[in-house]
Amino acid sequence: MLQANQLRKLAVGEDHPTVISFDMALDEKVVQLLDARPDLKQMVVPRLGELHVVMAALRALGASMENSGIDDAWMEADVYGPATTRQILKCTHYKRALHAHIYSYVALYEMALEEFFKDNPQLKYVCLKATERVEAACSEGKDIKAESVKQVNRTLLEATAEVITAFQEWEEQKSQHAMFKAMMSYLHRVETILFFVAATRNADLELHLQAGEALSKLFFSMDRIKYKRLWPRYIADMHDLRINHPQTWEELHAGNISVTKSVIPFVSVGADHACEHLNKLMKICSGIIGISNNANARQRFLMVTPEISHLSKEFKSQFDMEADRSTEHHELGPSAVKRAHDTIDKIKAAILSHGNPFTTEGDKLYNVITLAYIPDEYVPQILNADVTGQKLYEDYVSERINGDVSLWAPVKKVNNKMFLSGNKKIIVKLRDNTVDLKETKDLFARLMVLARSNRDIN
């Protein structure tokens, strides 16, 4: 950290703080150091890396919806296998987890919109007319004009304003039914994560803070302890930059909150994500290891890496190896779009084969694939998880960020009982020992639970 501060002094002078991105493990140590050394607070501004924040949010999202049936739909639709589904729920694979939730988000929203337009058929015509204009503007081929597309897009937004208002009123009315509210809660959580990702991709500081604050209720309701402690502090410190370091704020606001390496829109990444790219570029047989506690190795790494990267690019440019690079976003290619649409259709069909959860009335919750009911005592906690998380976040800010309670005082767990809590448990005797088995994605555990119950095996 001090070495980075010395480099900052050489680059921009003494009057600007050093902005450094960390993962949560390092950020916790840095915040402790800054609290113990007030003289360093004007020199260093720690930031939590966006990649690690999104991965933590996806883990919390996975914990909130595991065993809801959405995860079972991935397997029934033959989109992901059991091992991959576990990877997605635990977010050990960032891109795969993000895509899985996006596919489920679109599939569920299509089901919700179909029911909405059944109740409001006149609004469907409004949307169709507006989208037809957009489609016509985008189908002009090589003669397509950006200004005409922007114009019809503005018309689309104006036309759908009435539809959005009507949908919000319809959602509020239907939210008295448990299944409808549970599915919409999942959709809103995914939306919040996507807003945060969009802020990084577009290098938008204002959206980054707004979406980041909205993520707080997910961290608090799902007991992400370290993020419960330090995420509100990060949001507060970033807002303080506007007053304490206005020039640094302006630099970040101008787009330097993210790393942009291409002219293609929507491809910026967080600083921690860019470091992962750099590590991949620099990796050799055993990777970059053993430099954390070696001052000379760190110094060489910081000084040599940009030069080696520059040499690599210069070498490739001699053979036109960069000439074949795409000029559009990699997720807009025909094969990528077709694959996404096919996956969404499969997930949607798998869920609808067991009934549309948005049409279910009453105060019961169940798994949308197995149709197994969730115990009644867990239903209020599942439906009110976001409200509980928001209240906990506001109380935490008033007590620890704006109040006198220490940031490092113990943080209590909420232990919200979500869908997974409704799974059956059995005790299996193995010789002199006993083993607790819980009905999960593991095939052996599920079959053992079924064999010891009165249910028939299909």
Uncertain stretches of 5 or more adjacent residues: none
Mean pLDDT: 86
Q: Please report the number of helical segments.
A: 18
String of helices and strands? HEHEHHHHHHHHHHHHHHHEEH
State the domain count: 2
- Indicate the radius of gyration in whole angstroms: 25 Å
What's the number of extended β-strand segments?
4
The shape, in one word, is: globular
Structure notes:
- This protein is mainly alpha-helical.
- It has two domains: 49-311 and 333-401, no CATH class; 423-451, no CATH class.
- It is built from 18 helices and four strands.
- The strands form two sheets. It has a two-stranded parallel sheet. A two-stranded antiparallel ribbon has the order 3-4.
- Helix 2 links the parallel strand 1 and strand 2 (44-48).
- Helix 11 (225-244) packs across helix 12.
- The longest helix has 29 residues, at 146-174.
- The N and C termini lie far apart (59 Å).
- The relative contact order is 0.12.
Brief overview, please?
The chain is mostly helical and 458 residues long.
SSE topology:
Layout: H1 2-12, E1 18-22, H2 24-36, E2 44-48, H3 50-65, H4 70-76, H5 82-90, H6 94-119, H7 121-138, H8 146-174, H9 178-201, H10 205-221, H11 225-244, H12 246-256, H13 271-282, H14 295-318, H15 334-352, H16 379-383, H17 385-401, E3 425-430, E4 433-438, H18 443-451
Parallel strand pairs: 1-2
Antiparallel strand pairs: 3-4
Helix pairs in contact: 3-9, 4-15, 5-6, 6-7, 6-9, 6-15, 7-8, 9-10, 10-11, 10-17, 11-12, 11-17
